[in-house]
Amino acid sequence: MIKIAAIGDIHGGFDETDISLFNKSDYDLVLVVGDLPGRTHVGTYEIARRIGQLTKPVYFIPGNHDGVTMIQLLAELKQSQSLIERAHKKQFRLCEQLKESLGPANYCGYSIHPISIGGINFTLLAARPHSMGGAPLAYKPFLEAKFGISTMDQSTQRLNELIDRAESPILVLAHNGPTGLGSSREDIFGCDFRPDQGDFGDHDLEEAIKHAKISGKRILGVVAGHMHHKIRGGGERVTQVERDNVLYVNTARVPRIFKDEGKIMRHHVRLHLSETELTAEAVYWT
Ligand SMILES: [Fe+2]
Ligand SMILES: [Fe+2]
How many angstroms separate the alpha carbon of residue 213 from the centre of ligand 2? Predict the structure, then answer.
């Protein structure tokens, strides 16, 4: 079994102690699902430099808070097309800066990464970067200029092409999970911030998983975040679902570092992967 640490939405919660704990751990590799900065996008590059100090192989996919400005984020939230268009230009430089800060960590998105450890082979497939969930294609001008993707259908097509090129079995790394796993606020990628709730997954990813199945490609699981565990109005969402032999894991425990009965706790998810099976369990380091 390959041992993988999956780190959910960091949002400022990754310090020197984390570097030392992960470096001393028995993990073979580390996945980071994105959303590095705290509120008002403070600390992105500092967190990225800390991730860059990990001595394990690291794979990072940018979230909707990474390599973008606050104005861009607000423009996306409001779906102000004129502001989205005007504000996107800094994203190229910010993403470059993020990539540099991450040092040896693999900067992923619309990409495939063949991995072989201890005789076990699989492909890590990184889905659409900067996903924000829901129907709109977030950060469209950037995706268009960087990847030639300007619609959700084109994004599905790109993911399908990656699946066609990837050797089975496949593990998907995404910022947000796919649609099709429930539309209630407590569902794994369900919307908790709108009164009518709804499915807030990524439609392109759901379609790509269907494509994999039709093409006879084996997807072991999808590791994502974005939809934070604590839900608005109280309670916690479901964090793991198995559907049609694919394991979906939501790693977004926010805050990642917190106090419980006076003790500092640090969250991540431990994955065990073989060529036929994937399991996941939440880990809280004290
Ligand atoms: Fe987040
Ligand atoms: Fe996010």
Answer: 27
